[in-house]
Amino acid sequence: MKLLNEISKKQKGKIPIAKIDIPERDIKDLIPEKYLRQDETFLPELSEVEVVRHFVNLSSLNYHLDKGIYPLGSCTMKYNPKISEDMARMPSFSAIHPFSPEETVQGALKLMYELSDILADISGLKGITLQPTAGAHSELTGMLLVRAYHNFKGNNKKKVIIPDSAHGTNPASCTLAGFEPVGLKSGPNGILEIEDVEKAVDDDVGCLMVTNPNTLGLFETHIKEIAEILHKKDALLYMDGANLNAIMGIVKPGETGVDILHFNLHKTFSTPHGGGGPGGGGIGVSEKLVDFLPVPVIRWDGERYLFDYNLPHSIGKISTFFGNFGVMVKAYVYLRMLGEQGIKRVSKQAVISANYLKERLKEYYLLPYDKPCMHEFVLSGDRQKKNGVKTLDIAKALLDKGFHAPTVYFPLIVHEALMIEPTETEPLSSLDTFADALIEIAKKSKDAPEEINSAPINTPVGRLDEAKAARELNVRW
Questions:
Q1: Pair type for strands 236-241 and 205-211
Q2: From-to residues of CATH 3.40.640.10 in the chain
Q3: 437 contact partners, CB below 8 Å, separation of at least 6
Q4: What is the rounded distance in angstroms from the CA atom of residue 366 to the CA atom of residue 377?
Q5: d(CA 305, CA 282)
Q6: Least C-beta-crowded within 10 Å: which of 74, 154, 213, 383?
Q7: Could you give the CA distance from residue 83 to residue 182 in angstroms, rounded to a whole number?
Q8: Number of helices and strands (H, E) in the chain?
């Protein structure tokens, strides 16, 4: 303490203190009286350890990827490497202003250029835009590209075919772009049948939006034939790439005839997106659509990187600036860490993990499509429902066991759907613990259904009265 006092005395008077002249005014002159506190505020005196414990305990009430497996099907938060987060927070990236002159942000432009190159290689497509800031935003952008293409060619096409196994935002995206969505049922094997596609594609069809692998976790094995049918009618094939983590490095969609593909950078390439953001939805297009891409695109002229606005038939800007740059940084770091072989390995591991869980659980839950799956699979709670236990009850019972619930009641083509995606980064011990929990719930649904119906009882918030919530909707405090 004596040493600290001596240092304090030496420093006294040596540190310049800025003097600011503030006119003396009564607080009542600044704030209306009705907003002034009438009683003194009680502010507790807390130690550092108390404050730290408060926030640590508060965070533990929520569920997050650092805490356990996230088995949400179709839009699961993936592995979020801490190095990607660190790189995105670097001031040289995070502090860049979008209006910075090109010559002062060459590193950022190089990153965007090289990321586009990597995505073009993964997709097998010719042109890339990184502007869309979410998966649904890229769907809309893709549909605007479809519309621009047909308008340029003088095609009066009004319909877009959307399979029943597609992602739920597809119909909204095509409607916003001015098209009429037309549903198409999957065949008995859970994938599109050639005969059904041929019947559906007429001269009025401008595009087919396919999710591949689809939301059942099944690969559309007729994808090349579907593309040929569409191209004969000068229609385009749009692929929703939300499930790209099952096939990247193994299948290049562009080589199967896909004209437009969107990347969920925030899902497939390591950025957390729980709670609605942040997102990144880049798009890859075939050669015939390159000139319609949003501007600007990043070019290398042999000496420097620059923004190119000279696309003759561009649909214009679809984002305020150039996309969600922080997400691009994370995706770039992740891809550079993996390398070509690593990308392929991630896909294989995602498929292996999903098939392992599927085989462990199919004895206890109905499996509508009992065939090898890709990165995810869909069970049905119909067996449990016969005992009065719904899929929603199963999901709530999982919360009691310390797991985030999978996606429920989607896709709509599976009754009492339970959609599970284990992700490629979960160890075997994690998969087994999750499977054991679901198996125990299945057994209790038969022997003691009332326990499952009353779950959860160990969570910070118990089961809500959903009927009351529906009758007395209140979305604000």
A1: parallel
A2: 82-338
A3: 398, 401, 403
A4: 12
A5: 19
A6: 154
A7: 44
A8: 17, 12
pLDDT digits (tens, 9 = 90+) for 45-95: 899 999 999 999 998 888 877 888 889 886 666 677 889 989 999 999 999
| Rg of the chain over all Cα atoms, to the nearest angstrom | 27
Q: Do the Cβ atoms of 400 and 444 come closer than 8 Å?
A: no
pTM: 0.86
Bridging pattern class, strands 127-129 and 407-408:
unpaired
Indicate if the pLDDT at residue 261 is higher than 60.
yes
pLDDT tens digits for 100-144? Answer: 999 999 999 999 999 999 999 999 999 999 999 988 999 999 999
Distance, CA of 297 to CA of 284 (rounded, Å)? 12
Q: Is 315 helix (H, G, I), strand (E, B) or coil?
A: coil
Give residues with Cβ within 8 angstroms of 117, minimum separation 6. 128
Contact (CB, 8 A) for 259 and 286: yes
Tokens representing 341 are 């072989």
Which CATH number is 346-471 given?
A: 3.90.1150.10
- Number of other residues whose CB lies within 10 A of the CB of residue 164: 15
Return the CATH number of the domain spanning residue range 82-338. 3.40.640.10
Q: Could you tell me the end-to-end alpha-carbon distance of the chain, in angstroms, rounded to an integer?
A: 50
